[in-house]
């Protein structure tokens, strides 16, 4: 194999690696959270159960929420006023399939309530604070929902994050260095 053919092959491999590494690393950050203490969306005994659960977790863009619930119940995405009043008549989105996966696509607050207004009034409602993938350098806590003491974070049901995001910049820089070095080696001969 000639040195120019070898250089072209190495360069092609480098380009593919450099393009794919950040994509693979960013995909590795997503988590799926099974909503609630016991993983079931239902009328709770404690009216603050779901918001206590939410405060113990950190949600970022790209994560998803899994709502599992019985027939006769549902999940509604609503605005802040409808959340406070348990108004089920004008939802932003409505789900009633018994197993809903809701993707968190943008930062901010998202308000969920049961489609059964009685269940909602008894505490089957939830506020999720979604953060960006690259949070600000200062610590930012989600808004307080009640006066109860905070609890330490818990892990999501399925965690795909392995800390790989911390390696994105060094891996990309290393692949760039190796690509340039290997591309220039045949020229040195």
Global shape:
globular
What is the straight-line distance between the termini? 15 Å
Strand content is 15-25%
Number of strands: 9
Mean pLDDT, all residues: 74
Order of helices and strands: HEHEEEHEEEHEEH
**Oligomerization:** single chain
Q: Structural class given helices, strands, pairing? A: alpha+beta
Helical residue percent? Answer: 25-40%
Q: Quickly count the helices.
A: 5
Q: Strands of the biggest beta sheet: in what spatial order?
A: 2-8-7-4-5
Question: Would you write up a description of this structure?
Answer:
The protein is an alpha+beta fold. The chain has helices at 3-27, 49-55, 80-85, 117-121, 168-188, and strands spanning 31-34, 59-60, 64-68, 75-78, 93-95, 99-103, 108-114, 125-131, 158-159. The strands form two sheets. A five-stranded mixed β-sheet has the order 2-8-7-4-5. It is globular and about 40 Å long.
Task: List the SSEs and their pairings.
Layout: H1 3-27, E1 31-34, H2 49-55, E2 59-60, E3 64-68, E4 75-78, H3 80-85, E5 93-95, E6 99-103, E7 108-114, H4 117-121, E8 125-131, E9 158-159, H5 168-188
Salient structural properties:
alpha+beta; five-stranded mixed sheet; 5 helices; single chain; four-stranded mixed sheet; 189 residues
Summarize the model shown.
The chain is an alpha+beta fold and about 190 residues long. It has helices at about 5-25, 50-55, 80-85, 115-120, 170-189, and strands spanning about 30-35, 60, 65-70, 75-80, 95, 100-105, 110-115, 125-130, 160.
């Amino acid at each position: 194999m000639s040195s120019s053919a070898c250089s072209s092959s190495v360069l092609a491999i480098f380009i593919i690696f450099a393009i794919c590494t950040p994509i693979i690393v960013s995909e590795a950050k997503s988590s799926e959270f099974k909503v609630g203490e016991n993983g079931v969306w239902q009328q709770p005994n404690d009216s603050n159960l779901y918001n206590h659960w939410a405060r113990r977790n950190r949600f970022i863009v790209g994560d998803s929420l899994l709502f599992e619930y019985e027939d006769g119940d549902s999940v509604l995405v609503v605005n802040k006023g409808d959340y406070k009043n348990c108004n089920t008549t004008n939802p932003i989105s409505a789900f009633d399939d018994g197993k809903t996966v809701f993707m968190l696509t943008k930062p901010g607050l998202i308000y969920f309530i049961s489609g059964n207004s009685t269940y909602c009034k008894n505490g089957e409602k939830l506020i999720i604070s979604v953060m960006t993938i690259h949070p600000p350098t200062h610590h930012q806590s989600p808004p307080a929902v009640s006066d109860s003491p905070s609890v330490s974070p818990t892990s999501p049901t399925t965690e795909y994050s392995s800390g790989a995001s911390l390696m994105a910049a060094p891996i990309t820089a290393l692949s760039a260095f190796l690509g340039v070095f290997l591309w220039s080696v045949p020229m040195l001969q």
